[in-house]
Design a protein that fits this description.
5 helices, about 160 residues, mainly alpha, globular, 3 strands
Length: about 160
């Protein structure tokens, strides 16, 4: 059974998502969902995802609350930029930050956080030079944004390395 479904939970989740998106429990929809779950499980197996060990799980809860607070503040800031756009244009720009993170999953989590935060977008990470390029919608204080990224990096280092 493991050869047919290398990641059974992923296959089941994909099947359920397929059925929800199609809004149907017809036999054809179920067969297509099973087929997609199986094929995408094999594709995932070929990716060879890196495994990480969490070293300070207790720090993760505080970090999650910190990120949620930053996302709420960023939502408010972006809303004010949108509402005042007619009077004052946004000061958008690109920033680079040097990173010391080694763990691929920590980098992926940082990318998710930066992209999920309104007003920012992760654009590129140069693995050789270890430089992150990201876009900021309102760049009033460049050092504040760099400090935020470095704060996230420090917390992720504690959790993953």
């Amino acid at each position: 059974m493991r050869t047919w479904f290398p990641f059974p939970l992923l296959s089941i989740a994909l099947l359920l998502m397929w059925l929800l998106l199609n809004q149907s429990l017809a036999p054809g929809s179920i067969l297509i969902g099973l087929f997609l779950g199986m094929v995408l499980g094999w594709v995932t197996l070929k990716l060879h995802p890196a495994r990480s060990r969490l070293h300070r799980v207790s720090r993760a809860a505080g970090f999650a609350l910190q990120v949620i607070a930053d996302i709420i503040r960023s939502n408010i800031a972006v809303a004010s930029i949108i509402l005042r756009a007619r009077r004052v244009p946004a000061n958008a720009g690109f920033l680079t930050v040097g990173l010391d993170l080694e763990d691929e999953n920590a980098l992926a989590l940082l990318a998710c956080i930066m992209t999920a935060t309104p007003g920012t977008a992760w654009l590129e990470y140069d693995r050789r030079q270890k430089i992150l390029l990201f876009h900021v919608l309102d760049m009033q204080n460049e050092e504040l944004w760099r400090g935020t990224v470095k704060r996230y990096e420090a917390a992720l280092k504690e959790i993953f390395q």
